[in-house]
# Entry
Amino acid sequence: MSKFAQLTEAILGLPNPQNQLISIGISGFGGSGKSTLARRLAKQLHAAAVVSMDEFWVAERDVRSSDWTVFDRDRLEHQVLIPATQGNPIRYQVFDWHQGKLGGWREIEVIDYLIVEGISALHPSLLPYYHSRFGWIVLWRWHNSADYVAERPNTTLMKRRVG
# Structure
């Protein structure tokens, strides 16, 4: 069984007796395959939506920062994560890269899996949203590697060290 199939199986096997949203965060280096992994997972999980951190870019903050302040995590929290964890539809404004400013709105109906992918997706301020009473998953895709880590509190679902 491939690592991807093991990962998908581990996610689908999470206990979820009350059918609550399962949130998945994917982070890693630029060009490491975060978006590709997110799309593949969403396809396998079916009732899943992918939200990219790129849609929360703040052009005015386009400077290097150890805290990745170029991403509007507050807007992500209030327009995506809070509604999703409350079982409500998601409605958020996307960044229009051609105009260099916020553009139209994207709406996502109630889903079973929410995948947030991108640099800064696993910022400490966002980690509380990647869990529910029944468990959470955080995934990393390491640069130039096919290795993934999937964990939830007190249980390692799949882990393979890189390096």
Strands lie at 22-27, 48-52, 90-96, 101-108, 113-117, 137-141, 148-152, 155-159. The chain has one domain: 3-11+19-159. Confidence is low (pLDDT under 50) at residues 132-137, 141-147, 151-163. DSSP finds three helices and eight strands in the chain.
